[in-house]
Specification:
By secondary structure, the chain is of the alpha+beta class. It has 14 helices and 31 strands. Bound molecules: guanosine-5',3'-tetraphosphate (G4P). Guanosine-5',3'-tetraphosphate binds near residues 17, 20, 22, 143 and 258.
C-alpha cells in the first residue's frame, strides 16, 4: 500500500465523557468489532476510581495499566483506527486536554439518564475551541432516561453544539425496542442476549414491513413515524463538510454494555470521520502528505516497572513517515536522535514498529530528552502549536524534607513537570517553589512518585491562591511597573520564565483586571 493510501485509511480519535457514562465499555466494544480482543472485559479501565484517592498502590497500578491503554489501535474494514485514551477523572483533565491536541476527531459519550454532565461540558468546550469534529453517542438506552428530543435540546444548549440525529431510539429502558438508523435507513431490534457478540441482529429496511409492526407494536411504530417527521422538520440533514468544520454534530443512540448501536456508530464513524488533518506550527501549516517527517510529543508516561525507570514519550506523526533507526531532529535541543525500538500499539499490546504514518502514535523510550509539546522533524525547524498549560486551581509550597536529597528532589520535580503532572512556579519575592495542579489528587501522586522514583521526600504548605494567570504587558509601561510593585507578593515565574499573577481571590483578580486595563490576563500559557 502506498504512502497516500496509508494516510487515507487512518482514523485517530478520542472518546470523551464524564466518568461513568460508558467510555471504557464503548472502547471495549469497538475493539471487539475490530477483532482486536475476543471477549468483553479484556480492556482494563485506566480511570482512577473515586474511592482510590488515597490508595497509592491502586493509583500506581492503574497508571501502569494506562500505559498500555493510552493508545488502542485496530483494523476495521481496512481502516486503521487509533483510539487515544483520555482519563475521565477530573483531576487528570489536563492530560485529557493535551491528548485532544493529537486527535483528528472525537466521540462524546453521554449517559441517557444523567444527560450532559460537568466534565463533558469542559471537554467539549476545548474541542469546540479547536473546531474538532465531534460525534455524540447517547448511551445506556437499556435504562430509563431522558426523552430523546429533550436530550438533543440539552446537548445543543449546554454544549453549544448544532446536532442532527443519525439514529433514533424506539422506546427506552424496560420498553427499549430498538433503533431506527437514519444514516443507513433501517431498523434494528434490541435483543439483550447478543451483548457479547458481533453477529447479525434482526434488521428491517422498511417502516412498512408488516413484521416490524408485529415486532414493536402499533403504538411504538406510530410514535416512531411521528418522531421521524419531526426530525425531518426540525434538524438539518447531515452534511459532512459542516461536521468536519466543527459546525454540525451527528448524534447516535445505543447501549455500549449491550453492544447495541455500537456497530452502527463504528460504520458511520469510518465513513464520515476525518483522515489525519493538517496541523498548524508556529512557522506554517503542515500537510500530512508532505514527504518529510514531523511529529510532536503530547504525552509522557513514566515507566512503572522499577527495573526500567525510563519513560515513554508519545509522538503523534503529523507528516511523512517515522522510521526506526533513522535520525530525526529534536528541535528544542537542536540535536539529532534516533530510536532503535519505537513502539506501536495494537489493542492492548505494545510492539516494535519499523515505520509509522501520519495519524499514528509512536511510543519512544526516553531518558529525559522529551517534554510535552516537543517537536521532532526530518530537519526543518518547526514548532507545533496548541499544547497550552491550563491555569491550575490548587497550589501548595513544596518543602524539601531531606537536605541530603535536594538534587534528587529538584530532578524529580523537573521531570514530573515535563510529564505535565503539574506546573511549577517560583515566587518573585523569596524564590520559594510552588506547585500548581488542576486537581488535588496530583499532590499525593507527586509526593508518592518523588519518594519512590527519585528517593526524595517533600512536604507541602498551604498557599491561598484562587487562580494563576499569565500576564502580558508592555514591560516599559508605567502601569506594568506599578502592577509589579504593588502585586509583588503575588507574582511568580513559570518554568519558561513567563510572569504569572497568583490571585488570592476572585475579587482581587477582578480588581486587578479593572485597575490595570493595559495588562492582559491569560488563563492558559499560550496566548
Ligand atoms: P467510563 O469509562 O465512562 O467511566 O464508564 P464505564 O465504561 O466504566 O461504565 C460505567 C458503568 O456504566 C459501568 O458499570 C458499566 O457497566 C455501565 N454501562 C456502560 N454502558 C452501559 C449501558 O449501555 N447500559 C447500562 N445499563 N450500563 C452501562 P459499573 O457497575 O460502574 O462497573 P462494572 O462493575 O460494570 O465494571
Amino acid at each position: 500500500m502506498g504512502f497516500l493510501e496509508e494516510i487515507k485509511r487512518r482514523r485517530t480519535f478520542g472518546i470523551i465523557s464524564h466518568p461513568d457514562a460508558g467510555k471504557t465499555t464503548l472502547t471495549e466494544k469497538l475493539l471487539l468489532f475490530g477483532g482486536a480482543i475476543q471477549e468483553a472485559g479484556a480492556v482494563k479501565s485506566n480511570k482512577i476510581k473515586k474511592t482510590a484517592t488515597s490508595d497509592f498502590m491502586e493509583i500506581e497500578r492503574q497508571r501502569g495499566i494506562s500505559v498500555a491503554t493510552s493508545v488502542l489501535a485496530f483494523l476495521y474494514k481496512d481502516k486503521k483506527i487509533n483510539i487515544l485514551d483520555t482519563p475521565g477523572h477530573k483531576d487528570f483533565a489536563e492530560d485529557t486536554f493535551r491528548t485532544l491536541t493529537a486527535v483528528d476527531s472525537v466521540i462524546v459519550v453521554i449517559d441517557v439518564a444523567k444527560g450532559v454532565e460537568e466534565q463533558t461540558e469542559k471537554l467539549v468546550e476545548v474541542c469546540r475551541m479547536r473546531n474538532i469534529p465531534m460525534m455524540v453517542f447517547i448511551n445506556k438506552l437499556d435504562r430509563e432516561g431522558k426523552d430523546a428530543f429533550d436530550l438533543l435540546d440539552e446537548v445543543e444548549q449546554k454544549l453549544g453544539l448544532h446536532v442532527t440525529p443519525l439514529s433514533l431510539p424506539i422506546g427506552m429502558g424496560y420498553d427499549f425496542k430498538g433503533i431506527y438508523n437514519i444514516w443507513e435507513r433501517n431498523i434494528q431490534l434490541f435483543e439483550e442476549e447478543q451483548k457479547q457478540t458481533v453477529g447479525k441482529k434482526s434488521k428491517f429496511s422498511s417502516l412498512d414491513d408488516p413484521q416490524l409492526e408485529a415486532a414493536i407494536g402499533i403504538n411504538a411504530l406510530a410514535t416512531l413515524k411521528e418522531e421521524l417527521e419531526l426530525i425531518d422538520g426540525v434538524y438539518p440533514t447531515f452534511n459532512r463538510e459542516a461536521y468536519l468544520a466543527g459546525n454540525l454534530q451527528p448524534v447516535l443512540f445505543g447501549s455500549a454494555l449491550n453492544n447495541f448501536g455500537v456497530e452502527e456508530l463504528l460504520n458511520c464513524f469510518i465513513e464520515i470521520a476525518p483522515e489525519p488533518l493538517s496541523k498548524n506550527s508556529e512557522e506554517r501549516l503542515i500537510d500530512p502528505k508532505e514527504k518529510e517527517f514531523s511529529g510532536f510529543v503530547f504525552k509522557i508516561h513514566a515507566n512503572m516497572d522499577p527495573n526500567h525507570r525510563d519513560r515513554l514519550a508519545f509522538i503523534k506523526v503529523v507528516s511523512g513517515t517515522f522510521e526506526r533507526n533513522v535520525p530525526y531532529l529534536h528541535v528544542r535541543l537542536n540535536k539529532k536522535l534516533k530510536f532503535s525500538s519505537p513502539n506501536t500499539f495494537f489493542a492492548e499490546r505494545k510492539e516494535i514498529v519499523d515505520i509509522s504514518y501520519p495519524g499514528d502514535i509512536v511510543g519512544l523510550h526516553d531518558t529525559g530528552n522529551f517534554k510535552i509539546g516537543d517537536t521532532l522533524t526530518g530537519g526543518e525547524l518547526l514548532h507545533f502549536k496548541g499544547i497550552p498549560s491550563f491555569s491550575p486551581e490548587h497550589f501548595r509550597y513544596v518543602n524539601n524534607n531531606d537536605p541530603m536529597k535536594a538534587k534528587q528532589l529538584a530532578k524529580g520535580i523537573d521531570q514530573l513537570m515535563d510529564e505535565g503532572v503539574a506546573q511549577l512556579f517560583t515566587l518573585d519575592l523569596n524564590g520559594r517553589k510552588v506547585i500548581g495542579t488542576v486537581g488535588a489528587l496530583q499532590f499525593e501522586v507527586i509526593q508518592y512518585r518523588l519518594l519512590h522514583e527519585y528517593g526524595a521526600k517533600c512536604t507541602y504548605d498551604n498557599l491561598n491562591v484562587h487562580k494563576a494567570c499569565w500576564i502580558e504587558a508592555d514591560e516599559k509601561s508605567e502601569s506594568f511597573k506599578e502592577f509589579k510593585r504593588i502585586k509583588q507578593k503575588f507574582l511568580a515565574k513559570d518554568k519558561r520564565g513567563q510572569l504569572v499573577f497568583l490571585a488570592d481571590s476572585a475579587f482581587s483578580l477582578q480588581m486587578a483586571q479593572d485597575q490595570y486595563k493595559n495588562l492582559k490576563f491569560h488563563f492558559t500559557s499560550e496566548f
